Amino acid sequence: MNKFIFSKLKPFFAVCFLLLIFSYSLQDLRLIYPSYFPKPVYDFKKNPLKKSTVELGRKLFYDPVLSRNNTISCSSCHLSNQAFSHAGNHLSKGIEDGIGDRNSPAIFNLAWQKTFMWDGSVVNIDVQALAPINHPAEMGEDINAVVRKLNKSKEYKTLFYKSFGDSLATSERLMKALSQFQLTIVSANSKYDMVKQGKAKFTQSENNGYQLFKQNCSSCHAEPLFSTYEFANNGLSYDSKLKDYGKWNKTFEPADKMMFKIPSLRNLAFTYPYMHDGRFKTLYEVLEHYEKGVEKNPNLAKQLEKPIIFNAKEKEDLLAFLAALNDSVLVSNIEYRQK
């Protein structure tokens, strides 16, 4: 009798098992971040984090199929062990030895950002990837061609099915998967974070630098993200070769001239060179700029109307504090690497 009942229930158990696997692949994920971080600005209700979609996004992020000649992936310019930047390169590099217009920005804590790119020309991360894919010197591809390539792949058909309930790749699904993976890249494990959590203490030099930071830098690089992610003119000289005026290149509004997005000060050890065009190789050069290199102009940030001058000891202390913002956990996290 028991054997008979079990044989009748076997199909039921099999269906339950398949439903469990299916529901697991579609389960919502929770973005993990410290309690002292502000609430993310990204609307996860419109694109809920799901394990299967994050995994699809990770594969797409590392796949050169997104480029015209299948040689350049997102990860080519955003390396996980460099806080998803391209350390040592002034400008981004693309297909057929192409050179992009700007330095590759680091990718982390994107859920707290309203705009993207150095000039803020993209206002939704769910479409951000279109910019490098379409850029002739970066990936040089058409999004429709990418979708056609993905729909020819049995592996991608399976991955899209797990994520969206059917196997069809579309540009919208491609963009959302890429954004989901990138949204999970959170930098919150530096020494600064350990201090905030009561798990560590600053050295005397780091604490001195922290005080200098709060007095001179925090209005643009606000804690705990270490950027307001707004735009500012920080007195950089105009590069006549790149012809880059920042936001002005898109808006042609006089007030936007030389206005660039303020980057985070987290992970500076992994993301050199600095500024939108990578003109400064070291942080000492950056400090030197703010001391005697700022060019006066109508749009200059008010905080920079007077030089910011540090003596040698203060510079060492400030740099010690900035080093406490480096997140070694982020750059070694296998969850962000290619599988």
TrEMBL record:
Localized where? Answer: Periplasm
Molecular function terms in GO for this entry? cytochrome-c peroxidase activity
Q: What is its main location?
A: periplasm
Per the record, a Pfam family? CCP_MauG
* EC id: 1.11.1.5
List, alphabetically, the InterPro entries matched.
Cyt_c-like_dom (IPR009056), Cyt_c-like_dom_sf (IPR036909), Cytochrome_c_Peroxidase/MauG (IPR051395), Di-haem_cyt_c_peroxidsae (IPR004852), MauG/Cytc_peroxidase (IPR026259)
Outline the extent of the Cytochrome c domain: 52-154, 204-326
Keywords in UniProt for this one? Heme, Iron, Metal-binding, Oxidoreductase, Periplasm, Peroxidase, Signal
Q: What is this protein called?
A: Cytochrome c peroxidase
Source organism per entry reads Chryseobacterium terrae
